Amino acid sequence: MREGVLYLPNINSDALFITLNKTKKHYSPTTMYKDYAINETFFHWQSQSSTSEHSKTGQRYINHKANNHSILLFVREDKENSNQLANPYYFLGQAEYIEHKGSKPMSITWKLKHPMPAHLIRKTSRLVIN
């Protein structure tokens, strides 16, 4: 998958595929988004760099709950493993829009419906500190 967002209109959902540890080998400067867990319940995510708060996509994120639209979060630590094979994503479940700051990209805070597993929180905390 090249894009980190998959809009699924047939099931009224957006699937967000998040790689936490981005490297220059796999990501351009415009796609080195700052995505991380704030804690076990809240997640900071940056939209694609072309998404503004007034765009159709930005409005879909902001108003998803009122429109009965689901936001599905999938996360992995690294793009590839030591054998250069794609790492799997962990499904974190549904998320609810809390707030955003900025535009192009939008920095969105999502609230997870279910707490994030502890091992993923440790990994994202380590990445934020570095």
TrEMBL record:
<protein>
    <submittedName>
        <fullName>Putative HKD family nuclease</fullName>
    </submittedName>
</protein>
<dbReference type="InterPro" id="IPR021835">
    <property type="entry name" value="DUF3427"/>
</dbReference>
<dbReference type="Pfam" id="PF11907">
    <property type="entry name" value="DUF3427"/>
</dbReference>
<feature type="domain" description="DUF3427">
    <location>
        <begin position="14"/>
        <end position="121"/>
    </location>
</feature>
